[in-house]
Amino acid sequence: MKYLRILGFCLLGILAAQNVLAAKVYTWKDSKGVVHYGEHPPKDVKATLVKTRTGHSDPTPAPVAAPTTPTATPANQTAAATNELDSLKDPTRCAQARENLNILNTVARIKTQDGNGNSVIMTEDDKAEQRKVAQSIIDQACE
């Protein structure tokens, strides 16, 4: 009986928390120009509804850089290639790729998500393909 009572209080707490999270928030300015926020704005003031978020935001697209057209001299090409290779050197990316490669080389079952967001276990062919990807990242990012 004690467990049913605890379970009932937990369910009641969850329902109360959902109501608090779903509350509408308004913003308005008073006569002194001070901005206020609240669930119930005064009746004589024009208030606007604030769009609240629950902590999840939509991904933002990465900015697209305009392509540049460098002059095609051998010295410029060599310098550009060296700068490009240096910019790919990233210790954190290197460490992550090495860790991934170590995990892929174990006999452990590895779960990933498919295009629909469903969890699937990687096959040996998938592991082999990911090993190649990890190794190419190591070749690029590690010193």
What is the first-to-last residue Cα distance? 64 Å
The major pleated sheet works out as: 3 strands, antiparallel
Rg over CA atoms = 28 Å
Mean pLDDT: 77
How many beta-strand segments? 5
Using the alpha-carbon principal axes, give the shape. Answer: flat
- What is the helix fraction of residues, given as a range? 40-55%
User: What order do the SSEs take from the amino end to the carboxyl end, as H and E?
Assistant: HEEEHHEEH
Structural category: alpha+beta
Ranges with pLDDT <50 over ≥5 residues? none
Number of helices: 4
β-strand percent reads 5-15%
Strand order of the largest sheet: 2-1-3
Question: Nutshell version of this structure?
Answer:
The chain is of the alpha+beta class.
Task: Indicate the topology.
Layout: H1 2-21, E1 25-29, E2 35-38, E3 48-50, H2 74-88, H3 91-104, E4 111-113, E5 119-121, H4 124-141
Antiparallel strand pairs: 1-2, 1-3, 4-5
Protein architecture, described:
The protein has 143 residues and is α+β, with helices and mostly antiparallel strands. The protein is 47% helix and 13% strand. It has helices at residues 2-21, 74-88, 91-104, 124-141; strands at 25-29, 35-38, 48-50, 111-113, 119-121. The mean pLDDT is 77.
Core attributes:
143 residues, alpha+beta, three-stranded antiparallel sheet
